[in-house]
Structure formats: structure tokens, C-alpha cells
């Protein structure tokens, strides 16, 4: 199968209903985004990555820098059914700062107790003083395995918790502790996508099924926030020239280390700005999308 990396013919911005739900719950579920052929293609790409990289003792693979590690995933970073939600929330001056692909086979035995609950952002959650903390980034989770039932390594989250800075938890992560109130395992099919605010409290549940859990996570933020992914050498890779300009921007290839460019001082030389302008999708009523 060939997966295109060219820009989609149409982009539909986030609806007012989607924005209201996202602001209230901190996440959206997008059903049937990937076709069966796309699921098969990207699942095969994860299988290849799994075969090429060392696994954890439990057989799982948590591989950072998803597209750098597996270039076949490039078609997901500006997928026409999901990417408009990203720029609808964050605007055009963005890049992917953190991404990973996950392969979790069924567990052979129960794992020791460990408190996995967290907000994305790392030190941002210690060093920003506002309450609630600013959104700063959003994430797309592309599901390539069926987690329509609980116990399959489902993403677990607390709806509405993105406006809560602290979650009551154990004194140490290895101390047994009850599941937080309101937590739910998100049940989705292969090909579905979960779009979520980085601040929502979430965790990965254990895979106690007979299905291997497969998912790709892509985190987007403003270009004035440092990239965690390994992307600096990407413009020298053979597959780089097959990417469209927006994809190259999202992987950190536009503006390089130029701080002014990352701060959005040169809109006309920023591919996503030009793409949105040409499509008539800049919005003077929403600050991140002001022309």
C-alpha cells in the first residue's frame, strides 16, 4: 500500500461543538479515522519497528521520536481527519515536540504496583505557577489495535481533569493506591483516534488480553517550546524530500535553530501559515489564527 504525504484537498476546522466538548472534557474520540488499509499499513510499520529495536523485560516497546524511528508513520502527522483539530486549537506556529510508538504484547504475569498517572509536559508541571496550568500542547493517539473492551492496555483518563493541577496519589509510585475517582478506560476500535489536552490526567492500563496493543502518539506544541524528539539530522535523510513542507515544519525542518522564526516572526515563510491562508482558514477572531 502507498500512503500519500501530500496535503489533503480539504481541511475542515474544529466545529464549535467539538471545541466545547474538548474544553469541557479535555479530549475527543474520533471514530473510523483510518481506513482498514491504513490500519494494516501502519500496523505493519510498527511490527517492523518492534522487530528492529530492543524490548523491555515484559516484551513491550516504547519507542520515542516516532517518525524518526519509523519514517513510514509520516502520513499520520498531518492526516486530514485529525490535523485540523491541532491547528484549530494551537494555530500555525507549531511543531511535534514529543512522539512515540507503543507495542505492548499481552502480559505473561501481573506487573508490580506502579502509579502511572500523570500529565504530559514534565517540568512544565513543576515550573509553571498558574492554576490551571496553560494547555501548551495537545496529543493525537492513533489506535492500530482493537481496544474496544477494557483490559487491553487502554488509555485510561479522568474526563475534565485537565483543569486540575494536582491529583491525590501515593507517597511513592510503587505504593499500592486506589484508582482515582472518575477514571475510565477509553474503549476504541483500530482506526480510531483520541485527541487530548496534555493536562488531562491519564495512564496506560495493563494489557491482560490476548491482543497486542499498538498505538502511535504525536504531541504538538508551539515552536518556541523545545523539541524532545531526535529530529536535528532529519533533512539529511533520504526520505525527507518526500515530505510536504507542512510535514517538514512539524518535524522541525523549517527555520532550523532560528529563534525569531520559531517565535513566529516570519509567517510568510512558515508552511502551515501559508497553507491555512491559501485555504481561507485563518481566523481573526481566534488569536493563534489571526492573519
TrEMBL record:
One of its GO terms (molecular function) is 2-oxoglutarate-dependent dioxygenase activity. InterPro entries: Phytyl_CoA_dOase-like (IPR008775). Pfam families: PhyH (PF05721). It comes from the Bacteria. PANTHER family: ECTOINE DIOXYGENASE, PHYTANOYL-COA DIOXYGENASE DOMAIN CONTAINING 1. This is Phytanoyl-CoA dioxygenase. It comes from Dactylosporangium sucinum.
